[in-house]
Amino acid sequence: GAAARRGMRLPAGVRERVAAVHGGAELPERLRLYDGWAARYEQDVAALEYRAPQLAAASLAFAFPAPPAGARLLDVACGTGLVARELHRRGFRCLDGVDGSAGMLERARSTGLYRQLRPCVLGREPLPAPAEHYDAVTVVGALGEGQVPSAAVPELLRVTKPGGFLCLTTRSNPSNLRYKAELEAALEGLERQGAWQKVLAQEVERWERATSEEESTQGTGYISGVVYVYRKCPVPPLEEG
């Protein structure tokens, strides 16, 4: 439809860079692509109207029972710091980040929004954090085909405090549907084991602009996505008084 063709009017460079990182490249090559993309990443995602950082931060702020001033957060696959900016606007100040790309970490460092930034390729290595350390963990945009495997989800839980929140996102476009089904099976399995409780699963229609006709939802020119929020068990009892 006309809207999908508008999506195709994204600058060719944006389309190519997005296609490259979501393509079948092996991990070292993909991290190199992210390093090379770091300088133009924020203007590219602005062109894509990428809404995941705002949506995730809003969902997490909604889940938190108390003002988050002292809450410790880990932003996994933090990229250039888009999620940190949104969390900061909502009063979260204690942010740590990890990413597999040195180029992205350098950009994130320049924002001044993080207390600590460390390299980590989730799925290949454990998170550089002790068990039960964080009040919340976010993984926005990195849970997808050829990126962070769904098998890495328990590692996110490991570093979260009991009663803490995990905010995850994935895309619902055709090329990510197999991954999404795998991810949801992993999320539901952990819920059945009593590892966490689901707080929220919100499907969002206009997640970001599609980079190809095939990926677009019903000719809208956009792809859809989903935000999940879980709370790690056991959830602490309400304090008396």
TrEMBL record:
Biological process terms in GO annotation: methylation
InterPro entries tied to this protein: Methyltransf_11, SAM-dependent_MTases_sf
N-terminal signal peptide: none
Gene Ontology molecular function: any one: methyltransferase activity
Domain Methyltransferase type: 74-167
Alphabetical UniProt keywords: Methyltransferase, Transferase
SUPFAM superfamilies for the chain: S-adenosyl-L-methionine-dependent methyltransferases
Top-rank taxon: Eukaryota
Record's protein name: Methyltransferase-like protein 27
Organism whose genome encodes this protein: Eudyptes filholi (Southern rockhopper penguin)
Gene: METTL27
